[in-house]
Amino acid sequence: MSGEFNYYTLLGITPKATSAEIKSAYRSAIAKYHPDVNAAPNAENLTAILNEAWAVLQDPTKKAQYDAGLEAKSQGALGSSGAPAGGVQNGGPNAPPAAMLDCEKCGEEDVHQRFVVFNSVSTFIVFTLITTTAMRLCTNCRSHEAWSSALHTAFFGFWSIPWGVLNSIKALYIAIIGGSMDKRSNAAMLGYLANAYAQRGNNDAALTTLVACNRFQRNKAIADAAESFRKIGAKVLDEPERLDGQFYALVAAVIPVILYAAIYTAIHLTWMHWAAAHNTEVHHFTSGAQHLMKQLHAHI
User: Fold this and answer.
1) Are 118 and 245 part of one and the same domain?
2) Is 274 found in the same domain as 223?
3) Which residues contact 212 (CB under 8 A, 6 or more apart)?
4) Which of the two residues, 41 and 165, has the higher pLDDT score?
5) How far apart are CA 22 and CA 169, in angstroms?
6) What CATH number is given to the structural domain containing 50?
């Protein structure tokens, strides 16, 4: 990563920098290069890039996606577009194969793995906590993460209005679609995997990852490389259309409705029971309220 332009080199920090360090570096750079204090002709453009860097690095989800793209590109198999450099490279007879990227949760190899983001929401009255999971996951782990994040959010995310409800609806939607997938990060990862599989002679897996890569980021080099594998008889490996976890996440979305309905019913029945037992007090209270409203209306 050293020697290459990226948001970290721009701010003079490392990818391991803390949130406070990122914020401090950004503020220092803005104070130095903002057009209000710097008369250089490129100050405005540089400030725009600094703002873009800050918008990405201060957001845990966007930062994780950006880091994933840098990780794949640093392996040396990707061009600047995120596509395999010059198509799929075999590297020569004596070149060691590129390291395989496995699921970051279970460590298993999966040709259908994706870099995904899930959110779990916890709320209490005015308190809202959003826990973000952003990693490279195999099919099974992605399925598990979909329903587990949905289940957690369904039970604990709807107890703050309005932000808890809004964030919970968003988190459930992400779970139902199988995770939020950044196009650039996934294109970079899949392009790298295509090289790794090709170097190992696994043409079916190489073609499968190239086809998926082309869905995330259309590129002629990717399409040409995929066609070359088809010409030698490679086949696209079947990918599940929908994960079991997505169905369970959809079912979990009904839980908040059931919980709200149960709470409303309990409160309503409790009130009805209390009102029946204290009918006289309720009548006096209602009469008094009506009399007060009439007096207020008469004075208006």
Assistant:
1) yes
2) no
3) 112, 186, 190, 239
4) 165
5) 30
6) 1.10.287.110
pLDDT top residue among 40 and 49: 49
CA distance 112 to 106: 14
User: How many residues does the structure list for the chain?
Assistant: 300
C-alpha torsion sign, points 106, 111, 115, 121: negative
Residues 142, 179 contacting (CB under 8 angstroms): yes
Residues 21 and 165 in one domain: no
Whole-model pTM: value is 0.67
Q: How far is it, in rounded angstroms, from Cα 201 to Cα 195?
A: 10
Take residue 47 and report the two structure tokens written for it. 């400030």
Residue whose entry in the numeric block shows the structure tokens 């994780």:
64
In whole angstroms, how large is the CA radius of gyration of the chain?
28
One-letter identity of residue 220: K
Per-residue model confidence as pLDDT tens digits over 16-42: 888 889 999 988 888 888 887 777 777
Residue 127 phi, psi (nearest 5):
-95, 130
User: For residues 169 and 150, what is the distance between their CA atoms, to the nearest angstrom?
Assistant: 10
- Name the residue with higher pLDDT: 244 or 85: 244
Distance in angstroms (rounded) separating the CA atoms of residues 274 and 286: 15
